[in-house]
Description:
Strand content: 25-35%
Strand order of the largest sheet: 2-1-6
Structural class: mainly beta
Amino acid sequence: MVTILSSVAQIRKQLNFNQDWFFKLDSTQSYLNDSLFSKWRRLDLPHDWSIEMNFDNHSPASSGGGYLSGGIGWYKKEFTLPDKDKGQLVFVEFEGVYEQSEVWINGHSVGKRPNGFI
Length: 118
């Protein structure tokens, strides 16, 4: 969800931000600067990629990870803030993110969560 606060009239506008994300599962490299989405899967949030895997009794995650192999999932979304909203206070809110997450906007890290759900 994106919340835009206008300082002029204290107007609060909320936008659904769940549609049109791109996803890639890959633990071998970083995709921070990858703007080529041709090999990325398009999806809507919420999304839990780990439950798409096969259960494996030999998974390094063992029972604590639901016997799912895990890995690193990358999510990306491109959007343009309308001109009328530029200069306003904008919040991007995620209602659930799991394990060792980091959020980047325009090439800048805006927050990390080292463990657990947030």
